[in-house]
Amino acid sequence: MKLREYDGWRPSWTHITTTRLPDSDYSGLVLYDQAAGRGEILRCTGAGNMELFKASDGWRTSWTHVVGDFMSGSALLFYEAPTGPTPDSCSMTAPQGGLRLCSSSNLAQ
Q1: What percent of the chain has pLDDT over 70?
Q2: In sequence order, which residues have a C-beta less than 8 Å from that of residue 89 and are 6 or more positions away?
Q3: 105 burial class (0-12, 13-18, 19+ CB within 10 angstroms)?
């Protein structure tokens, strides 16, 4: 059963993952364009639609992994493989949906 199909996705998205959004019963999508340093967060409406929740430029272009899921709350993990195990974890803050650094650690030290 197909619920909804979307055309016109930016072909340069390098990462797409899910996350929980503040004040929402439904998950959201995080889209990251590594070369452009662009990120967008889409909110799922529960009726098969998605709407733009937050978009911003200026994201690092060095992240090789962006990971999130509905079970992790609103936390996302941004990871730079070339620099070794130094994950940055960010979380969204309600109601604007901005990202802020909540922890950074260097596991190699």
Answers
A1: 69
A2: 75, 76, 77, 78, 101, 102, 103, 104
A3: exposed
Give per-residue pLDDT as tens, 36-69: 999 998 988 888 889 998 898 988 888 888 888 6
Residue 73 near residue 20 (C-beta atoms within 8 A): yes
DSSP class of 57:
E
Tell whether omega for the bond before 95 is within 30 degrees of 0, i.e. cis.
yes
* Residue 95 pLDDT grade (very low, low, confident, very high; cuts 50, 70, 90): very low
Helix, strand or coil, per DSSP, at residue 107: coil
Under a CB-based contact definition with an 8 Å cutoff, are residues 42 and 28 in contact?
A: yes
